[in-house]
Amino acid sequence: xxxxxxxxxxxxxxxxxxxxxxxxxxxxxxxxxxxxxxxxxxxxxxxxxxxxxxxxxxxxxxxxxxxxxxxxxxxxxxxxxxxxxxxxxxxxxxxxxxxxxxxxxxxxxxxxxxxxxxxxxxxxxxxxxxxxxxxxxxxxxxxxxxxxxxxxxxxxxxxxxxxxxxxxxxxxxxxx
Length: 176
Prior knowledge:
By secondary structure, this protein is an alpha+beta fold. It contains six helices and four strands; from the N terminus they run αββββααααα.
Protein backbone atom coordinates (compact mmCIF):
# COMPACT_ATOMS: atom_id res chain seq x y z
CA UNK A 1 0.00 0.00 0.00
CA UNK A 2 0.99 3.62 -0.25
CA UNK A 3 0.54 6.02 2.64
CA UNK A 4 1.72 9.39 3.84
CA UNK A 5 3.71 10.12 6.98
CA UNK A 6 4.66 13.25 8.76
CA UNK A 7 7.44 13.37 11.35
CA UNK A 8 5.04 12.50 14.19
CA UNK A 9 3.73 9.43 12.32
CA UNK A 10 7.29 8.32 11.57
CA UNK A 11 8.34 8.64 15.22
CA UNK A 12 5.28 6.68 16.39
CA UNK A 13 6.08 3.96 13.82
CA UNK A 14 9.62 3.68 15.19
CA UNK A 15 8.44 3.62 18.82
CA UNK A 16 5.62 1.09 18.44
CA UNK A 17 6.91 -1.07 15.58
CA UNK A 18 3.54 -0.73 13.81
CA UNK A 19 3.18 1.50 10.77
CA UNK A 20 1.38 4.75 11.51
CA UNK A 21 0.38 7.17 8.77
CA UNK A 22 -0.89 10.72 8.65
CA UNK A 23 -4.39 10.74 7.17
CA UNK A 24 -4.86 13.87 5.11
CA UNK A 25 -8.61 13.29 4.86
CA UNK A 26 -9.05 12.83 8.63
CA UNK A 27 -6.24 15.26 9.49
CA UNK A 28 -4.87 12.92 12.15
CA UNK A 29 -2.48 10.04 12.75
CA UNK A 30 -3.83 6.55 12.15
CA UNK A 31 -2.15 3.25 12.74
CA UNK A 32 -2.90 0.72 10.02
CA UNK A 33 -4.96 -1.98 11.71
CA UNK A 34 -6.44 0.15 14.47
CA UNK A 35 -9.92 -0.90 13.32
CA UNK A 36 -9.30 -4.20 11.51
CA UNK A 37 -6.67 -5.59 13.86
CA UNK A 38 -4.47 -6.34 10.83
CA UNK A 39 -1.37 -4.32 11.69
CA UNK A 40 1.68 -3.69 9.54
CA UNK A 41 4.52 -4.79 11.83
CA UNK A 42 7.79 -3.15 10.83
CA UNK A 43 10.59 -5.47 9.75
CA UNK A 44 12.87 -3.02 7.89
CA UNK A 45 12.81 0.62 6.83
CA UNK A 46 14.71 1.94 3.81
CA UNK A 47 15.13 5.54 2.69
CA UNK A 48 15.40 6.41 -1.01
CA UNK A 49 18.39 8.26 -2.48
CA UNK A 50 16.62 11.65 -2.27
CA UNK A 51 15.65 11.03 1.35
CA UNK A 52 12.01 11.89 0.64
CA UNK A 53 10.43 8.42 0.42
CA UNK A 54 10.45 5.42 2.73
CA UNK A 55 10.02 1.78 1.87
CA UNK A 56 8.78 -0.07 4.92
CA UNK A 57 8.88 -3.84 4.77
CA UNK A 58 6.33 -5.36 7.10
CA UNK A 59 4.87 -8.61 8.27
CA UNK A 60 1.11 -8.84 8.08
CA UNK A 61 -1.28 -11.73 8.75
CA UNK A 62 -4.21 -10.66 6.63
CA UNK A 63 -5.36 -8.45 3.78
CA UNK A 64 -3.82 -4.98 3.76
CA UNK A 65 -6.54 -3.16 1.83
CA UNK A 66 -9.84 -2.13 3.47
CA UNK A 67 -11.60 -3.87 0.54
CA UNK A 68 -10.27 -7.23 1.71
CA UNK A 69 -7.65 -7.46 -1.04
CA UNK A 70 -4.07 -8.38 -0.19
CA UNK A 71 -2.91 -5.02 -1.50
CA UNK A 72 -4.42 -1.69 -2.50
CA UNK A 73 -3.48 -1.86 -6.19
CA UNK A 74 -6.24 -4.18 -7.48
CA UNK A 75 -3.75 -6.81 -8.58
CA UNK A 76 -5.58 -10.03 -9.41
CA UNK A 77 -2.32 -11.99 -9.37
CA UNK A 78 -0.78 -12.22 -5.94
CA UNK A 79 2.89 -12.82 -6.73
CA UNK A 80 3.84 -12.13 -3.14
CA UNK A 81 1.46 -14.65 -1.56
CA UNK A 82 4.34 -16.98 -0.80
CA UNK A 83 5.96 -14.28 1.33
CA UNK A 84 2.66 -13.70 3.12
CA UNK A 85 2.51 -17.44 3.76
CA UNK A 86 6.03 -17.26 5.17
CA UNK A 87 4.80 -14.57 7.60
CA UNK A 88 1.88 -16.79 8.68
CA UNK A 89 4.32 -19.65 9.31
CA UNK A 90 6.55 -17.29 11.32
CA UNK A 91 3.50 -16.50 13.45
CA UNK A 92 2.73 -20.21 13.98
CA UNK A 93 6.27 -20.80 15.22
CA UNK A 94 6.05 -17.83 17.59
CA UNK A 95 2.39 -18.26 18.64
CA UNK A 96 1.37 -21.93 18.42
CA UNK A 97 -2.34 -22.69 18.16
CA UNK A 98 -3.81 -26.04 19.18
CA UNK A 99 -6.20 -25.94 16.19
CA UNK A 100 -3.40 -25.36 13.65
CA UNK A 101 -2.05 -28.13 11.42
CA UNK A 102 1.24 -26.25 11.19
CA UNK A 103 1.56 -25.90 14.97
CA UNK A 104 0.85 -29.61 15.35
CA UNK A 105 3.56 -30.50 12.85
CA UNK A 106 6.03 -28.11 14.49
CA UNK A 107 5.37 -29.71 17.89
CA UNK A 108 6.41 -33.10 16.48
CA UNK A 109 9.87 -31.78 15.71
CA UNK A 110 12.38 -31.50 12.90
CA UNK A 111 12.41 -35.21 12.08
CA UNK A 112 8.64 -35.31 11.44
CA UNK A 113 8.76 -32.07 9.43
CA UNK A 114 11.61 -33.50 7.31
CA UNK A 115 9.74 -36.77 6.80
CA UNK A 116 6.68 -34.85 5.64
CA UNK A 117 8.77 -32.97 3.06
CA UNK A 118 10.12 -36.32 1.84
CA UNK A 119 6.60 -37.77 1.55
CA UNK A 120 5.40 -34.75 -0.41
CA UNK A 121 8.45 -34.91 -2.70
CA UNK A 122 7.71 -38.54 -3.57
CA UNK A 123 4.03 -37.74 -4.17
CA UNK A 124 5.07 -34.83 -6.43
CA UNK A 125 7.29 -37.11 -8.50
CA UNK A 126 4.53 -39.70 -8.84
CA UNK A 127 2.06 -37.00 -9.89
CA UNK A 128 4.54 -35.61 -12.43
CA UNK A 129 4.92 -39.02 -14.03
CA UNK A 130 1.17 -39.68 -14.04
CA UNK A 131 0.76 -36.68 -16.36
CA UNK A 132 -2.34 -35.28 -14.64
CA UNK A 133 -1.61 -31.55 -14.40
CA UNK A 134 -4.05 -30.90 -11.54
CA UNK A 135 -2.52 -33.68 -9.40
CA UNK A 136 0.98 -32.39 -10.09
CA UNK A 137 -0.07 -28.83 -9.19
CA UNK A 138 -1.68 -29.99 -5.93
CA UNK A 139 1.26 -32.15 -4.90
CA UNK A 140 3.74 -29.42 -5.83
CA UNK A 141 1.78 -26.99 -3.65
CA UNK A 142 1.88 -29.46 -0.74
CA UNK A 143 5.62 -29.94 -1.22
CA UNK A 144 6.33 -26.21 -1.28
CA UNK A 145 4.12 -25.61 1.78
CA UNK A 146 5.91 -28.26 3.83
CA UNK A 147 9.31 -27.15 2.54
CA UNK A 148 8.54 -23.62 3.81
CA UNK A 149 7.84 -25.11 7.24
CA UNK A 150 11.17 -26.96 7.10
CA UNK A 151 13.00 -23.79 6.07
CA UNK A 152 11.50 -21.96 9.03
CA UNK A 153 12.39 -24.83 11.37
CA UNK A 154 15.98 -24.47 10.18
CA UNK A 155 15.77 -20.66 10.59
CA UNK A 156 16.20 -19.99 6.86
CA UNK A 157 14.00 -17.39 5.15
CA UNK A 158 12.95 -17.18 1.52
CA UNK A 159 15.22 -14.15 1.32
CA UNK A 160 18.17 -16.28 2.51
CA UNK A 161 17.31 -18.89 -0.09
CA UNK A 162 17.05 -16.29 -2.88
CA UNK A 163 20.40 -14.75 -1.90
CA UNK A 164 22.03 -18.18 -1.99
CA UNK A 165 20.54 -18.98 -5.40
CA UNK A 166 21.71 -15.61 -6.73
CA UNK A 167 25.22 -16.23 -5.37
CA UNK A 168 25.31 -19.60 -7.16
CA UNK A 169 24.12 -18.18 -10.49
CA UNK A 170 26.59 -18.81 -13.24
CA UNK A 171 27.77 -15.68 -15.07
CA UNK A 172 26.47 -15.38 -18.62
CA UNK A 173 28.99 -15.98 -21.36
CA UNK A 174 30.08 -12.89 -23.23
CA UNK A 175 29.51 -13.23 -26.96
CA UNK A 176 32.02 -11.71 -29.35
